[in-house]
Amino acid sequence: MEFNLRNEQMIAYHRNREDYEPQPEDCLQFAYGDRRYVKMTNQIFASDDVLKLKNLEEINEDFHRGDFITLALLSSDILDVLMSHLSNPHERIRELSSSAIVLISSIKFGRDKIMEKFYVPTIMKLLNDQVVNIRKNGYLSLLNMTEFQQGVDHVYAQGILVPLVNKLVEESVEDLLTLDLQLLEKILYCGDAQVEILKTQAIKRLTQLLKRSNFKLRSLACKNLACISYDANGKLDVINQGCVLELCERLLDDHNEVITNATMALASLAQHNECKFQMMDNNKLDIVIQLLSHNDHQIKLNSVQLVTSLAEHPKGRKECYKCLPTLQNFSTDPQYEYISPYAIQAIEVIKWEP
Prior knowledge:
The chain is mostly helical. It is built from 24 helices and no strands. This is Condensin complex subunit 1 C-terminal domain-containing protein.
């Protein structure tokens, strides 16, 4: 009978037997038990570089499992020792220590410990290291720390905003500049960060990134400008520093991700009349209307919202009549259910008569 059963039936058959004996509890332990990480911590702290490197390599292998990280943090001072080695003159020791910090910050218990001991400023110093991989580990650790709002608030409170803005011009490695922009975007959702960033050169530097050949940089620059524009004063500063037409150029970008973020930024900026005037005076409405037929649904949605704002301009209202059939289709077609409320609103604005 057993040979005719599928695997899951075989398991059920054996479990239902009267003489079934459950598997014994997992009692596998490290050598030295809970003292394993105490021993490794002591060796990393006090031994020669060769033994330090050996232990750091083992730590990095172990810390790919969250339960090992928790065990190490509960049973030893491994976090304190790793943090002390972030300034070690030996490049490989700094790199392995920083990569272990990345792994620790990937679990909640590790993030809580880092915040509890106020180690974020120590991690921030890694962004200025001469070694690319160490700077990368610094960014990855901070990105892990900002995975949830509590971490975002804590990192922002340590004064991360200005260093991130400075790195927009100081960082020469594009992959790391991408991480810098991702981290800056997260920080902009914190407290008064959207107000404080107006005291820096962020808008000018982000606008310069819109012309970079790397589409990820262009996309993230659009996204950060959108975040800044969510604040009323930020919206005005972005417009006054000449970002509107630069963002309009991104509407013709080859990558959907860039177009999505550019339309999102312009939809926010177009709530201000000056943005409407600049777009209408430079004949950008036709480009927006063409995007209503784009195959990406998020671009469609952003474009509908942008059309709604531009239709409030007298000239824009007249020109938007040509896209009424498309908007009416969005408002009635079930496949555009999520666009329908915005399409109905756009139709109402276009048809409005004083």
